[in-house]
Amino acid sequence: xxxxxxxxxxxxxxxxxxxxxxxxxxxxxxxKKFFDGRKINFTENRAVMHYLxxx
Length: 55
Prior knowledge:
By secondary structure, the chain is mainly alpha-helical. The protein is 40% helix and 9% strand. It has one domain.
């Protein structure tokens, strides 16, 4: 993940809290599901594949 520090004031405590949140929600597993083409868009009941259309 990329954080643009030029437009956001993020200190070490905030960054630590953010990292803890990502761990808590198991972000690595969610990213893997995304790239595996698994169903993650539960509103439309389908996989998110629109990124494949980008060049």
